[in-house]
Predict the 3D structure of the following.
Amino acid sequence: MDFESANMDMTSKIYSLIRDKKYQQAINVLSFQNQSQPRCRPTLSLLAYCYYHAQDFTQAADCYEQLVQISPEIDDYKFAFGQSLYKCGLNEEALRVLNQIEQPSLMNNVRKLQAAICYALDDVKSCQSYIDQCNDDDPDTVVNTGCVLYKEGKYDEALKYFTKAQQLGGYNPKVWYNIALCYYELKQYAQAVQHLGAIVEKGIKEYPELSIGMQTEGIDITSVGNTNTLQESTLVEAFNLRAAIEFILKNYVAAREALTDMPPRNVNELDMITLHNLAIMNMEEDATGGFEKLTFLISSEGFPRETFVNLCLLYLKYEYYDFAADLLAENTDLTFKYMEPYIYEFIEAKIVQQTAPEAAFKKFEELAGTLIEQLRRLVKEVQENRRSQKDEQVKKKVQEYDATLEKYVPVLMAQANIYWLQENYAAVEKIFRKSVEFCNDNEIWKLNVNKI
């Protein structure tokens, strides 16, 4: 009886720890039991659950793999194994495990997870195929359809689906974040900030233990860790997007404050997007640290797609042309995957400029010519749509024009810089005069014209 009583006490203790979300303490107890009785299914099942919720997905996957081997007839273990592999970034392996599941009651969740994996792999066609097999009355189907539209660059359409999901399911921070993300891509920053503000306000009320804003106030706070609570709150994503918006609007102090407002974590606990943003937004104060963070990221699996381009452009800004050339030469796969042709041609021309200014000028001239053609075409399309009173099309074409102008101005400045370094100021003035029809309202253009 004493042995049975001790077992009951131990079981009660473990479930109490899990109930209170003290997963690491539960893992310590369960690990000892697992060593005493290896491959005991109940112990392994609880251990896998705790590892997963403690964000240790590698250990969770290892436990679930053992459970699949012990009980191959239980598809729930296969699903949990596939989910853990997905969280580890082992997408192909996860798909192979999920394809073995046959239990009908699990299939809707299996399809949703398969869709998420294909989304992560940029396989939009397969992702949509899995979504089409999901239950129509599942709110996640609406959200997932919006995600596919977002990935395809159809931000207006994606916004409609996320808004519908919000209306169907009520407040959900992840859905609100997706809405903010669409507004961000549409350059409607005020609406994006409004939705992000709602996430933060809700987070402050519901999760006081996450110490939101304490770092900015200068209060010394210990790390809150990468808990499930932090993930559910979507606060990290919200603060990162808020920082990006403030940075675009040139509110650099506010951008840095957005990063320090987020729940505190140790450096080794930071996600890749936060690490990227910390590097970018603190380059003026700590360029060395910024370059260290960015070079670390591009050597890591699953880094943010902006990282590679931003590192190249920062090498140019700080005149590390050899580093930029080496980065392109050593990562041709990343160049084709993450760089628009325009960006690649611009970077290549800047590198060439260091040894062959005339050849670089020709490259910039060709690039400028292509962009000027696009600007003139867009001006014509704006005028035609205005005459036809197609307001939505006018808005869309104006946004395209602004985006193209943002590409054109750096090319123009690079051309002018070549003549400026040669002290050929008449040629510099001629270049600026040629661009006046497009750039007379551009602040960077006006600033440089005033220097001549």
